[in-house]
Amino acid sequence: MDLLDPVIIWLPFAHEPDAPRAHMRELGRQASRAAFGVAVAAWKSAHGPSAWHGAALEHDAQGAPRIAGHRAAPFVSIAHTRGLAGCAIAAPGAPSIGIDAEPMHASVIPALRALAEETGEARLPWNDDAWPLRLWCAKESVVKAERIGADALGRSLRIEHVGALSDEGKQNVVVRSHRDRVFAVVTAVVGDHVRAWTA
Question: Which of 118, 146, 149 is nearest to 132 (CA)?
Fold first, then answer.
């Protein structure tokens, strides 16, 4: 692993389609915390021991995750959706990181398609049927990297460029953020989910 690489861990967890929403949300939170534990161990293996390694994961006033009690600790991002949780820990000195995931058959797809038609983002060279979720997850990963609230369906973020689709199902996109910053985002279809991550 390159010293500039973040650590990104994805963990599947049991999805119970008929369970109450609050129960599934709690399962997702637990899975995210488990992914955090695995990510801390992987970060330590890649970058060496650090004072924050025994610290817990907490959330700030806006709900964004952070490593408790250590101002110099690296940036953390978490995600959970039906059956998948993830945690990313930024490389040493990296200012941010963001991850997101959605199931391939998410109910929001029609709304995403309609919005992308309005904004022109639907005309970008997406190359596969997963593009509405690639678009959504890319924008969500940027929102998490910036730690700023998203507007409905990411209307004030824009996909500016879409790269070629790789043989492994990855597609790089460029997102302009709320703060007019430009982020490179990797999107990928893995199993039943679309995943995205950016630094």
Answer: 118
Residue 24 binned pLDDT confidence (cut-offs 50, 70, 90) = confident
For residues 131 and 194, membership in a common domain is answered with yes
**Same domain? 73 vs 138:** no
pLDDT value at residue 1: 42
This prediction has a pTM of: 0.92
Q: How many Å apart are CA 102 and CA 135, to the nearest integer?
A: 11
Phi, psi for residue 8 in degrees, rounded to 5: -130, 120
Rounded Cα distance, 138 and 85, in Å? 16
* 48 contacts: CB under 8 Å, gap ≥ 6: none
CA distances from 134 to 22, 112, 191 (A): 26, 10, 14
Of the candidates 79, 66, 73, the one whose C-alpha atom is nearest the C-alpha of residue 91 is: 73
Residue at 1 is within a domain: no
| pLDDT at residue 72 tops 80 | yes
Tokens matching residue 59: 């959330």
